[in-house]
Write a structure and sequence with these properties.
The chain is an all-alpha fold and 373 residues long. The protein is 76% helix and 0% strand.
Length: 373
């Protein structure tokens, strides 16, 4: 895939974090979590450990100095390693067929992630996750944010009890770094890779513009049948709200497409990895998981249509989201099919690595759908 200079620069900005003492490992945490690379994520954690231990052992100057020295040496290593890793990452992105976000979408992502900055403020480092939990369906983040704040409160409340205060602040320091890492992970948590993003947005905008036309037609129909209210009521109960007919048709269309895509992927997996190979079993579980997620979302969408008795903007937003999620799963299967076809024809270890990474990404996207519902 051809990528612009701007796209390459913006995808390399994470390297700048390697120049920040204390937080030089966060770039690796960010890029490792975003691209499902456990090695990069673990490497970032290791670069942070000397700084954490150095701050915790400040009362013992000799030990603390040792850890800070190790942290400083690790900073130089991160500078070199970040350049090496970014070179590998850019090569992977150039060879991938992942849909690049527009400039506007990237700006929107940055604005939506500004809450992460709160995690860098001692004492308030848990407030960011509390805010994120309040604004998303993932309420467990609220509990997590409170947990990161409690040690600070306990330390100040027990200020006169030195042993308790010391332990509380030591735990608070550990939680401070953990909260930063967790905030970065939450901010980069993969969202569904929406298929037909631009075209569906246009369809949704057109639907909003024509909504009033649907409503007028519905009102006229009710007036024309006012002498037969019972028949009209039966018709409304058995059918779908006219304004939502578009979504019913879309659900039916996607329900016909998914089994074909799923069957194609499974046949390609069996050709490339004959059972009972462990790789076959692992990839099959990923597809099975997508199957469960797809049909649970489809069932939820039909349930919304069934229970709706009149037009509602909130209900339409939820229906729109269901269609986007279903599209994202189908697009993921398309990408897997393309990569498997190339892999079967080439039989190269590098191509196998790309398949492995693509399946990991697809699995994470499916998991993120479950987490948000």
């Amino acid at each position: 895939m051809t990528r612009t200079i701007f796209q390459k620069i913006t995808s390399s900005l994470w390297v700048l974090t390697s120049f920040i003492p204390l937080f030089n490992g966060l770039g690796f945490v960010y890029i490792g979590n975003k691209h499902a690379n456990t090695k990069w994520f673990t490497e970032g954690i290791l670069y942070e450990i000397p700084w954490i231990l150095g701050i915790m052992t400040i009362p013992n100057l000799a030990v603390s100095t040792l850890f800070f020295t190790l942290g400083s040496l690790a900073s130089f290593v991160t500078l070199i390693r970040s350049i090496m890793v970014d070179f590998t990452l850019q090569k992977q992105l150039d060879e991938s067929n992942v849909m690049e976000k527009t400039f506007g979408e990237k700006v929107e992502d940055v604005v939506d992630s500004l809450w992460v900055l709160i995690s860098f403020i001692p004492i308030l480092n848990g407030v960011g996750l509390i805010y994120k939990g309040k604004t998303t369906p993932k309420k467990s983040w609220i509990t997590e944010g409170i947990l990161y704040t409690v040690p600070w409160i306990l330390g100040f409340v027990t200020w006169g009890i030195q042993p308790v205060r010391s332990v509380a602040f030591e735990v608070a320091i550990i939680f401070y770094f953990v909260s930063i890492i967790r905030s970065v992970m939450v901010a980069t948590e993969p969202k569904p890779l929406y298929a037909y993003r631009d075209s569906f947005t246009q369809e949704a905008e057109f639907k909003e513009k024509t909504r009033h036309v649907f409503e007028k037609k519905t009102e006229q129909k009710v007036k024309e049948n006012k002498n037969n209210e019972e028949a009209v009521n039966v018709n409304i109960q058995e059918g779908v709200v006219p304004a939502f007919k578009f979504y019913e048709n879309k659900f039916n269309e996607l329900a016909e497409i998914y089994p074909i895509k799923e069957k194609n992927v499974m046949e390609l997996i069996e050709k490339r990895f004959e059972p009972p190979q462990l790789t076959y079993s692992r990839f099959k579980r990923v597809v099975d998981d997508s199957h469960e997620t797809f049909y649970s979302q489809l069932k939820a969408g039909h349930k919304i249509l069934e229970l709706s008795t009149e037009y509602s903007t909130k209900v339409e937003d939820e229906l729109k989201n269901k269609v986007l999620v279903l599209n994202s799963i189908i697009q993921g299967l398309d990408k897997l099919s393309e990569e498997l076809v190339l892999n079967i024809s080439q039989q190269e270890s590098e191509s196998y690595d790309e398949i492995n990474e693509l399946f990991d990404e697809f699995s994470r996207v499916t998991s993120s759908v479950k987490a948000y519902n």
